[in-house]
Amino acid sequence: MQFAVALIEYLISGIVASVWVVALLTYYGDITITELKGLKDELAVAAVVYFPLAYILGIYVDATSSFLIRRMIGIDKNANAKYSAYNCIRSKIGRFFYFIAGTPKPDSYERSSEILSHSISDAVRTMEAYVSRDRIARGVALNSFIGVFVSLLCAPPDKRWLLSLVCIVLTIYSLIMYKRLRRLSSHFKKVALVHIRKTNPQK
Question: Average per-residue pLDDT in the chain?
């Protein structure tokens, strides 16, 4: 189950990342869109070549996005502790974020986690599904961020700024969704752990 979830996560991230990879290949390489379309028409080639490459690319995107977000969190904490001006700006951005993304309900997942606590395997599968959403949103954020630069570099002049703006908006929105989804999955873990300990006390 866990491998199947990870497979889907990485394939989604890899397939999305292949958009900007193809854009770079067609811009810098000798590969044309016509050749890529011909390759896509070969189902056997798509199954044998494309999906494994998309899976590998998805793993790289996930690992890179995880590293960058953790690094950004570390930089944010250090800057927040050292610079009062940054602290002020950060608090304003935080209030704006909570205005847009909302705050979790105090009783969110209480009922479902209590039910799932009677079956640890069900609780684990549900937790994997919630964590999977975090990873997908994280991967979309990184792919969108890369898409900003790829659009500025490779897109036709008349569509360059529009595509870049779309990628910027998608990056910000994906980061907001990642933050919200991660907060919800973390809350589920805490609540489920409490119920599991109540339901299955250690002897």
Answer: 75
